[in-house]
Design brief:
With 155 residues, this protein is an alpha+beta fold. The chain is 55% helix and 23% strand. The strands form two sheets. Strands 1-2-5 form a three-stranded antiparallel β-sheet. A two-stranded antiparallel sheet has the order 3-4. α1 crosses α3.
Length: 155
């Protein structure tokens, strides 16, 4: 019973840390159990799995999406077009947060084009690039997501 509780608790911790479903947390915990049940290794395992999923989705058509806006102190304005495969994904917290964070990134870092934006370090976590952040969300949601474009205006 104690081992069962520890296994469930670890799966919940992994699920919480990586924002994934409990069953995937359990799978990652069991796959990494040969490494002394290392939680950080299990979270890394999940991130790699998400990147693999994103690579498989890359060529799929993105016919839905939303436009996100951000205005900073009335002096900088940004519009970002973020597309995905279905309307269902546009309603998820992960997609909405991603669009908001990308708009904030564009306002802060002023990339010249989409390719430069995807290579930039994320302003809130310099260990991630914007491209990596998008791949993580693709791994969580299971659909292709891409930045179709953006505009940044200043006064």
């Amino acid at each position: 019973l104690e081992n069962s509780f520890r296994l469930s608790r670890s799966s919940v911790v992994i699920s919480f840390k990586s924002s994934i479903f409990f069953s995937l947390g359990l799978e990652s915990f069991l796959s990494c159990s040969f490494h002394r049940k290392n939680l950080s290794l299990a979270v890394t395992f999940l991130k790699n799995k998400g990147i693999e999923k994103a690579a498989k989705k890359e060529g799929r058509d993105t016919s839905s999406g939303l436009i996100f806006s951000y205005v900073h102190a009335g002096k900088i304005g940004v519009l970002v077009a973020l597309s995905c495969e279905t309307d269902f994904v546009t309603k998820t917290d992960a997609f909405l947060n991603l669009g908001k964070e990308i708009a904030l990134q564009v306002a802060s870092m002023n990339p010249k084009n989409t390719a430069e934006l995807l290579k930039q370090e994320y302003i809130r976590d310099t260990k991630l690039t914007i491209g990596d952040m998008i791949k993580e969300v693709i791994g969580k949601l299971g659909e292709n997501i891409k930045v179709d474009g953006f505009n940044r205006l200043t006064i």
